[in-house]
Amino acid sequence: MISLDSCALQLPGYGLSTLKTKATTRAKGGSLLEACQEAFPGRDIILGGHDRGARLCHRVSVDHAHPPSSTAPSYKLLGTVLIDIVPTLIQWQAFANPKAGVAYYHWPFLASPTAAEMIHAYGGDRWVHNGLSRIQGDSAEGQAKFQSDNAWEVYESQFTKRETIEGSCADYAAGADPEPQAQAEDQKAGRKMQGPVLVMWSLARLGSMHGDVGSIWKDWVENEAQLKAIGCGDGVGHYLPEESHNLIGNSILDFVKKVST
User: Fold this and answer.
1) Could you tell me which CATH number the domain at 2-260 has?
2) Predicted confidence (pLDDT) per residue in 115-150, tens digit
3) Is this structure's pTM higher than 0.85?
4) What b/e sequence results for 60-69 when a residue is b if at least 16 CB atoms lie within 10 Å of its CB, and e otherwise?
């Protein structure tokens, strides 16, 4: 998800939307920004995303600070919110640890050429159900929040469509190439996020793999003093906006108020 003022958008190709552009974070981010600017011309922007949406926000934030071309969209970015991720390059490097490779096996699998066909044969809804079960937290309260209002059924129904399966696989393929290489080049050239950044992550899931996720992000922002990092405990898992919506919602609201004044 990428949020702009009161506008929340789905990543192209993940269910209700269609992937009509390249699957790279730069291409999708550019198309979403263009759509939002048409709908809300002249408004300042706060980027916010979870998981794959957060990776898009990371790319858009870096490109805003260091435009890749003279035709890059012009706007005022007030801040960036990233939920439950480390930089894509760091995650791929973590797979040198066998435990990380097993825990996040879907990364290389979904990026492979045969993934869409295999998921379609297995059953996209069944695939999604297993994935949601695997990465959610151990908190019974968090699980109940995540599964409320038939949320799982909505996710599962979207992945009965071949187009959705192919769109999500294309996103992971782009996350294997070219995004890690682009991030390595950015770091080497000193191209980092500018302005306020809020990072939140699950201590029980992402934190168990990477340790202090906030410390990792310090090397990816230009001004470390503008980075706020919040580790989420109480047994909540990867799906923080659902499992820990009070903490996540209040933290984002505080961040929005701070960067908007």
Assistant:
1) 3.40.50.1820
2) 999 999 999 999 999 999 999 999 999 999 999 999
3) yes
4) bbbbbbbeee
